[in-house]
Write a structure and sequence with these properties.
heterodimer; A: alpha/beta; 14% strand; B: alpha+beta; five-stranded mixed beta sheet; 7 helices; 74 strands; elongated
């Protein structure tokens, strides 16, 4: 089975490095596509912009979405994802620094599948990513793809 | 009893039937007329000239009209006189043409006053209006000389150019043989007498068959024209009530009687005296005004009054008698008036030797003797109305009438006896000491005198003998004796300057003020008919000795003065007193009432110059300065003559004076008095000028007025003849004024005038109603305005609250945005620090020594601590921001669950939790949970060094309030820091000792404050701490 991609939407390069490291430490071999802002994430998902030639059949298995993003914030991105037939069933995990109740509520209201706080303690973050992987990429059945 | 005679005379003139009622009060005491027994100079005499208000240089004619006013025809026009004020009438003073010289005046029975002028012909004043009587009215403008109304009611007009008669509204020329008419009169038979420049013409008044029949000279001559005093210039003519016609000419006076001319020879003057005017008084005396003064002819006796007697001018123009019986004399420069008075004064004018009288007494034959000490002494004697001088008068002074009819009089070193008008004199040459003799009397033994500083002595046969008392001793007092009184009963009363001495049965008794005398100085003693004795004092009033008691009269009890010179009592019992201020009478009824205790104050009736005295000053010094004559007459010596009063014929003016309101002035504007007026609104100043026509003594004419509608009682105006009112409120009024005459007889009806003061528009009822309506409206308006203001303010406040809330919301939003930013952005770098530190430790572990690893671990710890700080700060701000939702919370359960969790987190610790059950509170569940978490967490934390610890949660009462507490037995803290405990980031312990951020208690305090409660702590270092909190 071909390894599904994971879309990481994150503008902070340090976070990107650390996240990738956390994935690596958890032996996650899925291809990881990083989008630096909300628009890029949408470009990727809807094959527009620089991703217009992307393979139509390869939708990410998981979207890790930061809330605070340049150009278009995470919640907006989530709204577009859930709005579109092509993407509305994709599992989206909110991965953010904020533990603001308001953010959490808004995320779930937009039908995010999970909400994970990026903890400062990197080891705890690795732990969290491990649990994330085991659940979303291993245990969880992927929704059928649609074209 | 007074008899009233009513005489009715019926006078008919074909058209009118007129009744004249002459009411005569026949009692002698009520008629006021000039007593012909008196000399003219003995009447009350008054003069009005320019000096006291007469606004004219010459008075040509005077009449009194039936309404009581006196009218004067003067060189300055017509004047109306009320006794006080001269009013120019019928002429506009600014109009010089009307200020005519008036020569004749006559009131006809229709109420018209006819005015004959020198140059402007005839005028007629009727009902206050001046009517012309010139050529248009059928009368040629001629200089008028005489006006006369006949008993038939026809007005006769004498001019310098013919005689005219006015009948039934038409003037008729009456042709006689003279054009220069000077005077007209009528005799008892109805014959008209006309005085002319060519003698007197008399004729029967023409009888007319027709009103308009023309009389010609021939017709008149048929009626027998008699010519008297032919070719003489007649000045005055008068037909008296005895049938005589008196004719005065430049050549003197004749009397036409029964067709005969009798020459009247006037005494005391030139042989020929020009007679200017004639008048008959009510007693039939003829008054003659000449160029040589005033003459009165009374039953063959003459009395004369000239400039030497006080008349301002001897050239007399006119004489008239008024209703009060006074004679008015018009002269070139003045108006003079003679009136009868009750006090008759005898002076040098009547023949007294000297006016300065010092004593007077009466001899047994009824002669009055007047003694004057002035100029060496003189004695006058009045017998049968004649005054004669007693020649060879010695010095005279204190006097006494002896039983034998002789008069004793004394002075220093001189004692004289006047017997049969001859003097027998004793003096130092006869052995009399040169001592002042101040009082003389006699008893049954001898004459008794007082010699100054020697004492009382008897005078027997020209020698002084001692006055012996019962015990044979001499009466030795040398006190100054003012007067003696030897009573018929034989008691000697001695009035001295230090008291009264009574010698009875040859025993003397002294009395002074302590015994009840009015004053120690007794200067006159008089015994009345009832046998009670009166004593006067020149400084202390009057003492009445009645039935052995002294009764005092002085100014406190109504006596007009305390300076009494002499006291007498008349046969009616009235007390008469002489003083420096005139003579006074006290009615016997007042005395009976006062001594009977019925009144507190007596009335003093005072007589002065106004009543006939020539001075108010009576004589003081010795006695007798007053005398009661055998016929009851009262005499007093004054410094200007002897004053006699006859109490039996004391006259009283019984005629109430007519009262008139002459002028009504409202705000300086004269208001017409003919009808009642309505004054314009706001009239502020009202003046009523009124008068009463009693000419006898205008000073004693008193007024009372009352404004009905304003005054509640009569206002006593005294002699004031004007009343003022200001700022009366609008309504109708009636001004009433009453007056009394000089004897206090009131005209109770008086005069009245009704008027109305119109209200201002703002004083009317409708205006009041309007104002009430407006005020009510304004009140309602103010109410509405206030309500509106309140509403506006409420709106403003709402708006402000809204604005503040908005601002607060904005601030909260900003804070939220900030918190959000902190949440997201502050953590990122920390995560990088921690993450890459881990990467270093893992990936480059071989290249790092132990110290390097330790450093990296410290970097990690720092960043992780910072994360906790951020979380706590965000929590704190969340506490502030979040809404408070109170619900019922069971703190005990909450505390229990926290305790369990704590125990679970460190199972190795042995901590006993004691949690009171069932502590319920109304609070926000989440927030109160944070409070308990922090407090229990702190307790857990600060007991961590104790092996065994105890943490208690419960409640207690402090000041009646429920207080919750969390108590531990941990490390506690120093109370010195208690105040800093609840500030953010304040820590009591090092991080090494106890971990923590220092935000927890700050959060607790905010939550408690948001619940309206208080939180505080009590602790001791090393012995644990207790945190208390309350929740409202």
């Amino acid at each position: 089975m071909k390894m599904k991609t994971i879309l990481l939407v994150e503008d902070n390069q340090n976070d990107v490095v650390l996240t990738l490291r956390a994935f690596k430490k958890n032996n996650i071999e899925n291809k990881i596509v990083v989008a630096g802002d909300g628009l890029e994430a949408l470009d990727y998902l809807f094959r527009t912009g620089k991703y217009k030639d992307r393979d139509i059949n390869s939708m990410p298995a998981l979207i890790l979405l930061d809330l605070k993003l340049p150009k278009m914030d995470g919640l907006k991105v989530l709204e577009r994802i859930r709005d579109d037939e092509r993407t509305k069933l994709l599992p989206v995990v909110i991965l953010t620094s904020s533990n603001e109740e308001q953010d959490i509520i808004s995320s779930y209201r937009m039908h995010s599948n999970s909400y994970i706080r990026k903890l400062v303690d990197f080891n705890k973050f690795v732990e969290a990513v491990q649990k994330l992987q085991s659940y979303w990429l291993v245990l969880n059945e992927q929704p059928p793809l649609r074209s | 009893m007074k008899n009233i005679n009513v005489t009715v005379k019926k006078i008919t003139n074909g058209k009118h039937a007129l009744f004249i009622l002459l009411i005569t009060l026949s009692s002698a005491s009520t008629i006021f007329a000039l007593d012909p027994q008196k000399q003219i100079s003995q009447y009350g005499y008054s003069v009005w000239s320019r000096q006291n208000g007469l606004p004219a240089n010459a008075v040509n004619v005077a009449i009194q009209t039936h309404d009581g006013y006196l009218w004067l025809g003067t060189t300055a026009g017509l004047l109306r006189f009320d006794g006080v004020h001269f009013e120019a009438i019928g002429t506009d003073t600014a109009d010089s043409k009307n200020r005519e010289v008036i020569k004749a005046l006559c009131e006809t029975r229709d109420g018209s006053i006819w005015i004959g002028t020198e140059f402007a012909g005839l005028r007629r004043l009727k009902d206050g209006k001046l009517l012309p009587c010139g050529p248009k009215e059928g009368f040629p403008a001629k200089p008028i000389k005489a006006l006369f109304e006949s008993r038939a009611g026809h007005l006769w007009i004498g001019s310098s150019d013919g005689l005219f008669e006015y009948i039934d509204g038409r003037f008729q020329s009456i042709p006689i043989n003279s054009q220069y008419i000077t005077s007209i009169t009528e005799d008892l038979s109805g014959k008209i007498f006309v005085g002319t420049g060519d003698g007197v013409f008399s004729f029967k008044e023409p009888q007319r068959k027709q009103i308009n029949s023309v009389i010609n000279n021939d017709g008149l001559s048929d009626k027998l024209i008699t010519s008297i005093c032919a070719k003489e210039l007649i000045k005055s003519i008068y037909g008296d009530h005895k049938g005589n016609v008196w004719i005065g000419s430049v050549n003197g006076l004749v009397r036409w009687c029964n067709g005969k001319i009798i020459t009247v020879r006037m005494p005391n003057g030139p042989a020929i005296i020009q007679t200017n005017t004639l008048c008959e008084d009510r007693n039939g005396n003829i008054w003659i005004g000449t160029t040589q003064g005033l003459y009165r002819f009374s039953e063959g006796k003459w009395s004369i009054f000239r400039a030497v007697h006080g008349l301002p001018n001897d050239n007399i123009n006119w004489i008239t008698e008024d209703q009060e019986g006074s004679i008015w004399v018009c002269t070139l420069e003045s108006l003079s008036r003679f009136r009868d008075v009750n006090l008759t004064t005898y002076t040098t004018q009547e023949g007294l030797v000297n006016d300065y009288l010092t004593s007077l007494l009466e001899t047994t034959d009824g002669s009055m003797y007047f003694l004057s000490a002035a100029n060496g002494g003189s004695v006058s004697k009045l017998k049968d109305g004649k005054l004669i001088q007693i020649p060879n008068s010695p010095p005279v002074g204190p006097s006494f009438r002896a039983r034998d009819g002789s008069i004793w009089t004394a002075l220093s070193g001189s004692l004289s006896q006047l017997k049969n008008d001859h003097f027998i004199r004793y003096d130092t040459t006869t052995g009399l000491p040169n001592r002042w003799i101040s009082a003389i009397t006699e008893d049954s033994v001898s004459l008794i005198i007082y010699l100054d500083r020697m004492g009382v002595r008897r005078f027997i046969d020209g020698k002084l003998k001692p006055y012996l008392l019962a015990n044979g001793q001499e009466y030795s007092s040398t006190d100054y004796v003012s007067c003696f009184y030897q009573s018929p009963a034989g008691t000697l009363w001695i009035g001295t300057s230090v008291g009264l001495v009574i010698i009875q049965n040859n025993k003397s008794t002294n009395f002074g003020t302590d015994d009840g005398l009015a004053d120690a100085w007794v200067n006159s003693i008089f015994e009345d008919r009832q046998g009670s004795v009166w004593m006067s004092s020149p400084r202390g009033g009057l003492t009445h000795c009645r039935n052995g008691k002294f009764i005092v009269y002085n100014t406190k009890t109504g006596l007009f003065t305390n300076e009494i010179y002499c006291v007498l009592v008349d046969d009616q019992g009235d007390v008469w007193l002489s003083s420096p201020r005139g003579i006074c009478r006290i009615n016997h009824k007042d005395i009976e009432d006062y001594e009977g205790g019925r009144i507190d104050v007596i009335t003093s009736q005072i007589f002065t110059i106004a009543d006939g005295m020539k001075t108010d000053e009576c004589f003081v010094g010795w006695q007798p300065s007053g005398w009661k004559a055998h016929d009851g007459q009262i005499w007093f010596a004054t410094t200007k003559g002897a004053v006699m009063i006859d109490p039996k014929t004391f006259k009283r003016n019984e005629a109430p004076p007519p009262v008139y309101i002459e002028q009504f002035i409202a705000d300086m504007q004269t208001v017409r008095l003919e009808q009642s007026e309505s004054l314009r609104p706001g009239t502020g100043k009202l003046e009523f000028h009124y008068t009463a026509l009693s000419y006898l003594v205008p000073d004693r004419v008193f007024f009372k007025y009352l404004l009905e509608g304003y005054d509640r009682e009569w206002v006593d105006a005294g002699t004031r003849r004007v009343a003022y009112y200001t700022n009366l409120s609008p309504r109708s009024y009636r001004f009433r004024v009453v007056a009394c005459n000089n004897d206090g007889v009131w005209n109770e009806i008086g005069a009245s005038y009704s008027f109305e003061l119109a209200p201002h528009f703002y004083q009317t009822y409708w205006f009041l109603a309007l104002m009430i309506f407006l005020i009510a409206g304004a009140g309602f308006g103010i109410y509405l305005l206030r309500v509106w203001q309140f509403l506006k303010r409420e709106k403003d406040l709402e708006q402000r609250v809204y604005d503040r809330t908005k601002q607060l919301e904005i601030a909260n939003n900003e804070l939220e945005a900030f918190s959000y930013s902190v949440s997201h952005d502050l953590r990122g770098p920390l995560r990088s620090i921690d993450g890459f530190s881990v990467a270093l430790l893992e990936d480059y572990a071989d290249k790092l020594d132990e110290q390097g690893k330790d450093f990296l671990q410290r970097v990690r710890d720092g960043s992780q601590h910072m994360e906790h700080l951020i979380d706590d700060i965000l929590n704190l701000s969340r506490v502030v921001r979040s809404d408070l939702q109170r619900v019922s919370v069971d703190l005990s359960i909450l505390a229990q669950s926290i305790a369990s969790e704590l125990s679970r987190s460190q199972p190795e610790r042995k901590v006993t939790f004691i949690i009171a059950p069932g502590l319920m509170v109304q609070a926000d569940c989440n927030l109160i949970g944070i409070v308990l978490e922090n407090l229990l967490g702190n307790a857990w934390k600060f007991t961590s060094k104790h092996k065994i610890a105890k943490i208690e949660f419960g409640s207690t009462l402090r000041d009646g309030q429920k207080v919750y507490f969390v108590c531990d037995d941990g490390d506690g803290f120093d109370m010195a820091f208690a105040s800093k405990l609840f500030e953010p980031f304040q820590r009591m312990h090092s991080t090494a000792e106890f971990e923590g951020t220092g935000i927890g208690l700050a959060t607790v305090q905010r939550i408690i404050h948001r619940h309206g409660g208080q939180v505080w702590a009590e602790a001791e270092k090393g012995k644990g701490a207790t945190f208390y909190f309350t929740v409202l």
